[in-house]
Design a protein that fits this description.
By secondary structure, the chain is mostly helical. The protein has 13 helices and two strands. It has a two-stranded antiparallel sheet. Helix 5 runs antiparallel to helix 10, helix 5 crosses helix 12 and helix 12 crosses helix 13. The longest helix is centred in the N-terminal third of the chain and has 43 residues. The chain is flat and about 70 Å long.
Length: 312
């Protein structure tokens, strides 16, 4: 028997012994190195973990790309006039995305200037309304019984239609930018007050008992317990207000305004210039999405523990 065949036979015997005793035998030339069975299992476990991790990352990437794919499919169907065919629409009623993009490019300077004007109304009303609502909720939390009644009355402002509120604000503050800021302030103040008041007052009894046992003052109750507990409700109110502020600003410009996306939108609809009118809608939507994501980013930055809790 040749030397090569003898070595091969020894290797086969070593593998067979390892399978029975839980240890593997590697033959290198004429030497034999024993590898414990636990190490083999450890390597197999690491390989399995790597395979599972790769699968999870692949699914995560696919899920993150899903909205972009759905958006691309929607725009493609729109460009191919599929919606025109379904709803029996003409091109002047629903411009295709390429016509809207061409209109945005042609009127970029004017759209940017009007977007800044409407954005100022949005942010001004958003900040002022959220601040007033937060102050009202904080004050009401010190007197829960009477405060709940006051917040309920304040929430009635949400029932006032914007189309009725806008002419009133125009009558009070004139046709300048402050009338639209006042509209946004009113519709955002109530939402913040209701959301934050609920967060400030829905405290678990054991926490209140603990601070009461430590003889904490009412201000210490507020700063140490109520306000940290209400931070998720605060950001929930901010997100709601950011979404509604764009509506208030655009609708407010429909009545008495000389500039802004809402003014341009209503003017171009009257002139049947639908590509430019749709350009206003696209710019307003993009502005609202950017500002909303800014609030979401701030929420993740300031209360990361709430994100970890709600993601599961």
């Amino acid at each position: 028997m040749s030397e090569g065949r003898v070595l091969q036979r020894k290797r086969d015997e070593g593998v067979a012994i390892a399978a029975v005793t839980g240890a593997a035998t590697n033959l290198t030339g004429s030497q034999m190195t024993i590898v414990p069975g636990s190490e083999i299992h450890g390597q197999q476990g690491q390989a399995e973990k790597a395979r599972l991790g790769s699968g999870v990352r692949g699914r995560s990437v696919a899920l993150s790309m899903l909205p972009w794919g759905a958006g691309a499919l929607f725009l493609t169907l729109w460009q191919l006039r599929m919606f025109h065919w379904i709803f029996s629409l003409e091109s002047y009623q629903l411009p295709v995305p390429s016509a809207i993009a061409a209109s945005i490019q042609e009127n970029a300077n004017m759209l940017f200037r009007y977007a800044m004007y409407s954005g100022t109304e949005m942010l001004g009303g958003f900040l002022l309304g959220s601040l007033l609502g937060a102050l009202a909720a904080a004050g009401a939390s010190f007197f829960p019984t009477s405060g709940r009644a006051a917040v309920t009355v304040l929430s009635a402002l949400n029932a006032v239609p914007i189309v009725a509120l806008a002419p009133i604000m125009n009558n009070w503050f004139g046709d300048g930018i402050w009338s639209r800021i006042a509209v946004v302030t009113v519709i955002t103040m109530a939402a913040m007050a209701v959301s934050l008041f609920k967060g400030l007052t829905s405290i678990q009894p054991q926490y209140s008992d603990l601070l009461s046992g430590l003889a904490a003052s009412r201000m210490q109750f507020f700063w140490k317990l109520r306000l940290p507990h209400a931070l998720p409700s605060l950001f929930a109110g901010l997100k709601i207000n950011m979404s509604t502020s764009i509506i208030g600003a655009i609708v407010g410009e429909f009545f008495i305004a000389s500039q802004g996306l809402g003014y341009l939108l209503s003017d171009q609809i009257r002139l049947a210039n639908m590509p430019l009118a749709w350009s206003c809608i696209v710019i307003a939507a993009a502005l609202g999405i950017v500002l909303y994501e800014a609030v979401v980013l701030a929420e993740k930055r300031f209360i990361p523990w709430n994100r970890a809790r709600t993601d599961h």
